[in-house]
Design a protein that fits this description.
This protein is mainly alpha-helical and 64 residues long. The chain has 2 helices and 2 strands, in the order H-E-E-H. Helix 1 runs antiparallel to helix 2.
């Protein structure tokens, strides 16, 4: 396997694991499995956790 392919795979895998960890932490500890009510709209807990996880993984990716 070429080195560039290996680095690409490791970068993608580590970013995926990071996103899953952020989702778990935000769902269980930040939101405590309760809905997020913003006043004008209420997000279910897993949807809000997904938004937090996506944002963290997107901006936390060091390969961008």
């Amino acid at each position: 396997m070429p080195l560039q392919t290996f680095r690409y795979a490791v970068s993608g895998a580590s970013n995926t694991v990071f996103g899953l960890v952020v989702f778990y932490i935000s769902y269980h500890y930040i939101l405590q499995a309760k809905d997020l009510n913003l006043g004008f709209y209420a997000f279910e807990s897993y949807t809000a956790s997904l938004i937090i996880s996506f944002t963290a993984a997107f901006f936390g990716d060091s390969s961008l």
